[in-house]
Each structure stands twice: as structure tokens, then as C-alpha cells.
Amino acid sequence: MKALMKRVKIKSKQVILSLVCLVLGFILAFSYSLANSNQDEGSNRTDGQLKQEEALRDQLLDFQRKNNELQEDLYEKQEKVVTMEKSFSKEKQIYFNLAEDAERYRMYLGKTKVKGPGLKVTLSDADYNPEEENINNYIVHEHHVFKVINELYIAGASAVAINGQRLKHNSYVLCNGPVIQVDGVDYPAPFEITAIGDADVLNSALNINGGVKDQLLNENIVVSMEKEKEIALGPLLGDS
Questions:
Q1: How far apart are CA 192 and CA 224, in angstroms?
Q2: Fewer CB within 10 Å, N side or C side of the chain?
Q3: What is the spatial distance between Cα 30 and Cα 129, in angstroms, rounded to a whole number?
Q4: C-alpha span between 239 and 57 (Å, rounded)
Q5: In this structure, how many other beta carbons lie within 10 angstroms of the beta carbon of residue 206?
Q6: Sign (positive/negative) of CA torsion 78, 79, 82, 84?
Q7: What are the residue ranges spanned by the domains of the chain?
Q8: How far apart are CA 79 and CA 169, in angstroms?
Q9: Which pLDDT tens digit goes with each residue over 192-224?
Q10: Which fold has domain 116-233?
Q11: What pLDDT digit, counting tens, does each position of 138-185 carry?
Q12: CA 102 from chain center: how many Å?
């Protein structure tokens, strides 16, 4: 009986030991399988990330290439814009010059009102001298007026008037007895000649030694000059 019990215990121990080995083997196998599974999953995830990074890098390079192309295109267009601006600037300057020329021509023809600083020159007859037999030797003649007008134009006057009557490109001045006729209109002395322009330049031009003023004084003409801050001359009316 004891021997039987002993064999039963031995067999029980063997069964328990077998069960323990079986469970341990299952655990080891499961752990190994789980480790391999995790390793495979980690490897697959890394490959995917590499592929994604490579795709993003390719996309970034493509964007940089397109950006460079766009910058080159932008630079080309900017150069065209600069060229066009220079061309427009030249054309604008040409139009501006033409407008200035047109304005000067209108001013010269008397088609527009003008005003600005200038010089007023007054020519008066000399005092009566009973010892002078020829009266023409102390009165203002048209050639005296012409000398003043011509010198003023040469000095840069943009517009000139005689006793308020503006001169035009084809004006004429004639002596008619004791008066001077300007474009058919008679004016007695004194004769006031107004000119628009640089007053200092106009004044200096007439005051040159041996110039117009000295010549007039030598011919017994009374000459006075006055700089004006503003002289206004209206446009010529009618057929001019």
C-alpha cells in the first residue's frame, strides 16, 4: 500500500512537472512570438516613415524649383516694367516739352493771357529847347521804341506791350506826326513799354555801357526804368 501511494505521488509530481513545463513553454513561445510581431511592426513603421520623408523631401525640392522659376519670371517682368517706365518717362518728357513749346508759341502769338515779373520802360520827349531849330531832335520816334523792344526780346522777354497794347508777331510801329501808331492805334508820348521776363536781366540788357539807354540819352530822349513784381497782359482779341 505504501509502495502504491509512493508511486502515485511520483506520478502526481511528474504530471505537475509536465504541466509546469508545458505552461512555461507556452509562455516562452508566446513571448517570442509577441517580440517578433512587435519587431516586424516597428520595422514596417520605420519604412513608412522613410518613404513619407522621402516624398516630403521630393515635394519640397519641387516647390523650390517652382519658386526659382517664378522668381526668374518675376525678375524678367520687373526688367520689362523698368524698361516701359523709362520709355513712358521719355515720352512724358517729350509731351511736356511739346506742351511748353505750344505754350510759348501761344504766348508769342498773343493767344493767352500772361503775367509775371518784368520791367517797365518809359520814353518821354525832352523838354522844349527854343534854341533847337529841329523839333525832331528832342521827341521820341518809332526807331527809339524799336531799339527798346528789340533789346527786350533779345534779353528774353516773353511778352511786350506799348501803352498797354500787347504786341504780336506781326505788329508794326509808325510815326504819325506827334504820335506813334501801334498796329493802327495812335498813342501820344510818353510811351510806356512793359515787358514780362527776368527784371534784372532785362534791366541789365538796357543799361549796358554804350547800349540802348545810353544811345537814347544821347538823342535827348528821357528814359526811366522800373522793375515790376507782376505785369499782366491780356490775350490779343480779334484777328491776330
A1: 10
A2: N
A3: 149
A4: 84
A5: 21
A6: negative
A7: 1-80, 116-233
A8: 48
A9: 999 999 999 999 999 999 999 999 999 889 999
A10: Alpha-Beta Plaits (3.30.70)
A11: 788 899 999 999 999 999 998 999 999 999 888 889 988 778 999 889
A12: 21
